[in-house]
Amino acid sequence: MASLHTLADHPLVADRLRILRDRETPQADFVRALEHLSYLLAAKATDHLRLATVTVTTPLEKTAAAQLSDPILLVPILRAGMGLLRGFEHLLPEARIAFFGAARDEKTLHPVIYLDKIPADIPPSTAVFLLDPMLATGHSALAAIDRLMSKGARWITLVSVLAAPEGIAAVHAVRPDVTIVTAAIDRHLNGHGYILPGLGDAGDRQFGC
Asked: Which pTM does this prediction carry?
């Protein structure tokens, strides 16, 4: 799987991005559009998962079938990452879920880590999906990636709704082996570290404050 994938040309993705970008979109509609996107992103982000061949019995006969073979860990970066969790946990009900909390310092644009519920010993065969709707500077994502790798993770896919070129470059400069899957790549960051044209603060718009 290549290191960067975007879904911007998919009609359903483009339509949901319209809803998310519009500042007049009500909170409930924003949350619903984000949930829809989470399923579309999950389908793409998981297309590299490994399969084992098993035998099942249909109503008519036995046949070969495929089964996911590796452990899976979902890690939303709080709080905005919760909006991407629904699609992943529904499509991957066997996955473990860990939480990583990072708030951005508005002066330095660096993350302040306030929660780390990542397992202490992650098997290297684990497929880790790091959920961060807005890949802006990349600082929060890198903090989470560093923490995951320090605990054994070796196979990480970073999933976002929007990514800035600066954030993509920052992640791949340090962790070129991390795959990034994003709905769209936007123009650039403004002086305050926000993605343009963007969609505003994904956490505030999901939770209303």
From this structure: 0.93
* 177 in catalytic set: no
Q: How far are the Cα atoms of 56, 57, 67 from residue 64, in angstroms, in the given order?
A: 6, 9, 10
Q: Please give the single-letter amino acid code of residue 156.
A: I
Q: Is 201 a catalytic residue?
A: yes
For the stretch 106-122, pLDDT in tens is 778 788 899 999 999 99
Does the active-site annotation cover 18?
no
Domain contains 58: no
Q: Kindly report the CATH number assigned to the domain that includes residue 161.
A: 3.40.50.2020
- Structurally, the chain folds into a number of domains equal to 1
Q: Is residue 56 part of a domain?
A: no
Joined together, the tokens standing for residue 150 give 């320090």
Catalytic one among 50, 108, 146, 154?
108
Residue tagged active-site, from 96, 104, 116, 147: 104
Whether 63 is catalytic: no
Q: Is residue 176 part of a domain?
A: yes
